[in-house]
Design a protein that fits this description.
Length: 330
């Protein structure tokens, strides 16, 4: 895929050799505070103005890929077999001058109920019905129909019968046999059944291991402190071990582990840094904050997979709507 006519050839510079300032965008200029969007492929930042994107669309970006990534020059296409990514947009409110996202929770075409009513009012105002109170007519129609379904049925009796062979069976066949939709659905289902479930199981195992380490530390005795420190101090000092294990695997019951740990620690001149591959240092700089780091890593992976699922759900919805339109056009 080629670059747009307005986009210059790729320039890999990240810093200005004279000033040392960071360079961004296709213009290769420093950040001046102008509105920018980050590329999900190459992690560079780009000015809306340089990309010919109106600033009104700032809240409608769902997943952005720059021209270099979509052309396969940078980004994921270099590592995923040449598959070119595409920028995805959130669905814009149907009201002309509104640039907010549609209310996806209610599957609405508008960002709010207020804008939905405003759109209908604007449509009614454009109707060419001389000497007719158009808003009053609309209110009358809505008042005299008990439900939305009844309102949709208004005037159907006057329409000629359609003889086209539109059937549920044909529609279902069209949906079920579409290769693109099947591939998207398969990818989404595999993501849910494999990666997300596996990550949830991993999160549970890490959580159990952290609870096990906390229980060990709760039951540790002050006698694990260094003998010299015990002689100098008249008060008992709480001792805690690092507890890091590269596989986050619980080796045995807490009591069994404590017995072995205390036995090794009480041996004369014994230097014990690990028990059953678990770090038992009381002051460990190497594995500092490992609990928080492990939890953060799981949270980041989970968020990334959830974003992928949202994108697949969106693509499935878009493709399904395309097939519906195609079916009824036929």
């Amino acid at each position: 895929m080629s670059l747009p006519s307005w986009c210059p050839q790729y320039d890999g510079r990240k810093h200005d050799p004279k000033t040392g300032e960071d360079l961004y965008c296709i213009c290769k200029k420093p950040d001046s505070g102008e509105l920018m969007v980050g590329c999900d492929g190459c992690d560079d930042w780009f000015h809306f103005s340089c990309l010919k994107i109106p600033e009104n669309y700032r809240d409608l970006v769902f997943s952005f890929y720059c021209s270099y990534c979509t052309a396969g020059i940078t980004g994921p296409a270099l590592t995923n077999g040449g598959k070119l990514p595409k920028t995805l947009w959130k669905r814009k409110c149907r009201l002309r001058d509104c640039y907010r996202e549609c209310d996806s929770a209610s599957n609405s075409k508008y960002c709010s109920k207020k804008h939905g009513l405003q759109y209908v009012q604007d449509v009614v105002e454009r109707l060419q019905l001389p000497n007719v109170d158009k808003i009053g007519l609309l209110r009358q129609l809505l008042t005299e129909t008990a439900s939305l379904e009844e309102f949709k049925k208004l005037g159907r009796d006057k329409l000629p019968e359609v003889s086209l062979p539109l059937s549920i069976e044909r529609y279902n066949n069209l949906i079920e046999n579409d290769r693109q939709l099947k591939n998207l659905t398969k990818e989404r289902d595999e993501l849910v059944s494999n990666k997300l479930l596996k990550l949830a199981a991993e999160e549970g195992e890490i959580g159990k291991y952290i609870c096990w380490v906390n229980e060990v530390n709760d039951k540790l005795l002050p006698q694990l402190a260094q003998p010299a420190a015990r002689k100098k101090s008249k008060t008992s000092t709480k001792v805690t071990i690092c507890g890091y294990h590269d596989e986050f695997a619980i080796p045995c019951a807490v009591e069994v582990f404590l017995d072995e740990l205390i036995e090794l620690k009480e041996e004369e001149d014994s230097i014990c840094s690990s028990v059953k591959s678990i770090c038992v240092k009381t002051k460990c700089a190497k594995h500092q904050d490992w609990i928080q780091l492990a939890q953060n890593e799981i949270a980041e992976q989970k968020e990334a997979l959830e974003n992928v699922k949202k994108r697949l759900d969106l693509l499935i919805n878009v493709r399904t709507n395309q097939l519906r339109v195609s079916f009824f056009e036929q």
